[in-house]
Amino acid sequence: MAIDITMPALSPTMESGTLAKWLIKVGDAVKPGDVIAEIETDKATMEVEAVDEGVVAEILVAAGTEEVKVNAVIARLQGEGDEAAPVPKAAAAPAHAPAPAAAVAAQAPVAVPAPAKPLTPQGPLVARNIASPLARRVAQLLGVDLGAVTGTGPNGRIVKADVEAAAGKAPAAVAAPVAAAPAPAAAAPAPAAAAPAPAAAAPAPAPVVLPPTEVPFEAVKLSNMRKTIARRLTESKQQVPHFYLTVDVRLDALLKLRAELNKALESRGIKLSVNDMLVKAEALALMQVPDANVSFAGDSLRRFSRADISVAVAIPGGLITPVIRDAANKSLSKIATEMKDLAARAKEGKLQPPEYTGGTASISNLGMYGIKQFDAVINPPEGLILAVGAGEKRPYIVDDALAIATVMSATGSFDHRAIDGAVGAEFMSAFKALVENPLGMLA
Amino acid sequence: MSAEQFDLVIIGSGPGGYVAAIRASQLGQKVAIVERERLGGICLNWGCIPTKALLRSSEIKHYIDHASAYGLSAGEVGFDLAKVTERSRKVANQLNSGVKGLMKKNRVTVVEGVATLASATSVKVGERTLSAKNVIVATGARARELPHLKADGERVWTYRHAMVPPAMPTDLLVIGSGAIGVEFASFFSDMGAKVTIVEMLDRILPVEDEEISAFMDKALKKQGMTIRTKAAVEKLDVTPEGVTATINGERQIFSHVIIAIGIAPNTEDLGLEALGVQTDRGHIRTDEWGRTNVPGLWAIGDVTGAPWLAHKASHEGIVAVEKITEQPHAHPMDKSNIPGCTYSRPQVASVGLTEAKAREAGHEVKVGKFPFIGNGKAIALGEAEGLVKTVFDAKTGALLGAHMVGAEVTELIQGYVIARACEATEAELMATIFPHPTLSEMMHESVLDAYGRAIHI
Predict the structure, then answer these.
(1) How far apart are CA B46 and CA B14, in angstroms?
(2) Which of A30, A139, B13, B278 could form a disulfide with A34, with the two C-beta atoms 3.0–4.6 Å apart?
(3) Number of other residues whose CB lies within 10 A of the CB of residue A212
(4) pLDDT tens, residue order, chain A (443 aa)
């Protein structure tokens, strides 16, 4: 009998993902545990394993198809003793996804044979972009990837309005009316005159100001990660009132301790980075100032009883924030080990969604690039992010005398809806004290 | 008396109502249609169709009048207005029975009488009560009259009187230069009347592209018509000898007057107010699916507002029915691609934005024009007067609008309408092979001209 393989939910909140790659083809025999496909979500690439045995009868969603809805049938296996009647049965489970998560997502008895695009009623799903000539032209002009556009025309044909909608553009205003005064703020969606929607009501995922067309350019397709970064950070800067507090922190004691600890840990093959220690310092500071370990949740404030630190990691094509859970209560060696593993898997794009979501505060360190000081963008719904610059030798006043010390600047960005200036200052001062007296971190 | 149960009740059997009824029946609905006069509504009884029959008579007369231009000789053409009218009525009657047949074939229950809405889902017609899950109001519109511009049916007419004229006007005043006014002006002028058109705005056919208006202004004047723009008829005095009209303060005598100053929706006595149905300047307000603000109550066609065109009503009927029956391919009404046609001599046809409107909307445009004089078929037909104008978005190549004046353009415009519906760009239009020799070649040339590539100019 035929067994449907459906799009798995890689996290409880996943609604759709990109079917990045098929590792099987029609006619292949698969058995449980075989990796059959790779699925890309907003931040991670996951492997999908077969749970049933059979021969691949049909591949219904082509590799590279974006926004494949969870539970949509993506392939069909012909099992043993096979007849053709398709059985509505979810057969594939993600390789590593937490079981309950998949179950939750699967519960929704969504009538979704709807993959990326509406298709002709009976035919098999073929990922081809049927688009009107004008839609193709406009897509080219706006740099929109037709593969990412859902068509609303006859039989799912992509029409101009779909492309414009995908580009985040009001369909009416093709060009800015001549009379419109040049907007002083470049961020304001320029031809807004036609669309009376209040700016705040519709958080545009991407700015609508088009790049100059007279300069030769190459339109680079947005990865899912880039789309997520664009959307979330735009939301953050638009919706979260940021304020910033900077302190200079003396690092000498911490560096000394790190050298000693690393010597001691050498036999275990563990090497602490400065950043590992700053992660712990941030977590401890949050525990000391619980009013800073908060998240603004609309009609309430969440004060967390644990500090889970999201650590910004640059990876090819973007960045990701693996989370060190309960960092305040973890030993430095444990943090270092976890961080090494998370960062390595992050660079391969193999992190699971639960591993990079749900922190209570973030840290971003650009010290290795020699950056002295910077302001980071809060990663909502977190309430703060710490931006750490380079540790460098600076003239420093010690006991009323000019001396040389290794100093770094750290800047906290705070969500003023949740954290006020004094609380933020208290947190920064606690962080500074912990770094400057690092033995407190070991206790 | 107990209520008769239907899935859908439609009030009004014009081109909106009867088309909606057929589509609903095709989709398995049990349908009743209520009509207070004649099946087919204004369109085929008193509008589109019988006027085309009249205009055909005047066109043939025009050809015979000019027979010598084609190497033919014919004596002076006489006519019997009563017989011309009779032919027009026959055509209307034939189509009226055609609609009757269609209703029967599609098992639509036809209820004769005046409908009132007892509720959003219940319609009273005399003693009968028709209840339905959905009701579509398709009651249409009628000629607008003003207190100082009222028809009497004798010397002062609306289109309805003009269609069955009691006498042949010698000196006709047409108030209003929209499609209806210009068509009657053209008919009576070709039949031999002296015609004056008065328009309040600065040009005739004011909804058309300015160049088309200017072309028509010239063409109609050449035919002997008097055209007065930026002029208002302030007063009409009917005397035994004729009608004295006061135009911009000056008095002038006409034998007859046609009032063609727009239309008024038929919304009275339907019970709309009691149901709290929202209206906008008398027209029922609907969304792009034809839904009113009252659940279960829908409205289509002229009663919902401009453009007051039969094909718009029919399409709205299909849209509404397909939404009511939740068809997967149901598509909302796109009012930007409704062609408009005026069957005067010369004819006018257009779709989309005029050049001015396109610029107003912020488009950078490319405009193509091709004159009839450059087309072999037009010259062979002896119809070398006309223009095909196309307006493209310079950036995207979208065909924003097409505007045509000249012989048979009403039959040609659909080529551009299809192109727009398929979202063709200039590239597809240029790559299309047009048959030779036809008038349609000018449609190709106009597109080519917009991009500086016209061949025969």
Answers:
(1) 11
(2) A30
(3) 6
(4) 678 888 877 766 677 888 888 888 888 888 877 888 888 776 667 777 777 788 888 888 888 888 888 888 888 888 655 444 444 444 444 444 344 433 333 343 433 333 443 333 333 334 456 899 999 999 988 888 888 888 888 878 899 999 988 887 544 433 333 333 333 333 333 333 333 333 333 343 444 455 556 677 777 878 878 888 888 888 899 889 999 999 999 999 999 999 999 999 999 889 999 999 999 999 999 999 999 999 998 888 899 999 999 999 988 888 889 999 999 999 999 999 999 999 998 888 888 888 888 899 999 999 888 899 999 999 989 999 999 999 999 998 888 889 899 999 999 999 999 999 999 999 999 999 999 999 988 87
Residue B172 is which amino acid? L
Quote the CA–CA distance of A323 and A345 in Å, as a whole number.
13
Contact in structure between B203 and B214 (CB atoms under 8 Å): yes
CA distance B14 to chain A (A): 28
Task: Tell me which residue in A135, A141, A174 faces B362 most closely, judged by beta carbons.
Answer: A174
Q: With CB atoms and an 8 Å threshold, state whether B424 touches A132.
A: yes
CA distance B349 to B339: 7
A420, A426, A403, A437: which is closest to A249 by C-alpha? Answer: A437
d(CA B148, CA B261): 12
Q: How many whole angstroms separate alpha carbon A168 and alpha carbon B348?
A: 38
Residue B423 CA to residue A162 CA, distance in Å, equals 12
d(CA A98, CA A102): 7
CA distance B328 to B325: 9
Nearest CA in chain B to A194: B361
- Round to whole Å and give the CA distance between A220 and B149: 65
Region of A311 (left: φ > 0; alpha: ψ -120 to 50; beta: rest) is: beta
Which helix (H) or strand (E) covers residue B20, if one does? helix B17-26
Q: Of all helices (H) and strands (E), which one includes residue B257?
A: strand B256-259
| Residue B110 DSSP one-character state | E
Q: Please indicate whether residue A242 is annotated as part of the active site.
A: no
Q: How far apart are CA A271 and CA A333, in angstroms?
A: 8
* B428 chain-A contacts, CB cut-off 8 A: 133
Give the gyration radius of chain A's Cα atoms.
Answer: 26
In angstroms, the CA A308 to CA A430 distance is 17
**A403: number of Cβ within 10 Å:** 10
Helix B179-190 and helix B48-65, axial crossing angle in degrees, nearest 10: 40
How many Å apart are CA B106 and CA B117, to the nearest integer? 25
With both helix axes pointing from N to C terminus, report the angle between B179-190 and B210-222 in degrees, rounded to the nearest 10: 20
- Report phi then psi at B327, rounded to 5: -70, 135
| HSE-CB for A118 with a 13 A CA cutoff | 14
**Residue of A136, A416, A417, A432 marked catalytic:** A416
What is the rounded end-to-end Cα distance, in angstroms, of chain B? 72
Q: Are A74 and A5 in contact (CB under 8 A)?
A: yes
The CA–CA distances, whole Å, from B321 to B162, B331, B456 equal 35, 11, 47
Q: What is the pTM of this model?
A: 0.59
Asked if residue A30 lies in contact with residue A56, where contact means CB atoms within 8 angstroms, the answer is yes
CB-nearest partner of A177 from B329, B362, B398: B362
DSSP string, A84-140: -PEE-----EESSS-HHHHHHHHHS-------SS---SSSPP-----B-HHHHHHHH
For chain B, the maximum distance between any two Cα atoms, rounded to a whole number of angstroms, is 72
Looking at CA atoms only, how far is residue B421 from chain A in angstroms? 10
Q: Which ipTM value was assigned to this complex? A: 0.80
β pairing state of B4-11 and B128-137: parallel
Kindly give the residue spans of alpha helices, DSSP state H, lying in A207-296.
224-239, 252-265, 274-288
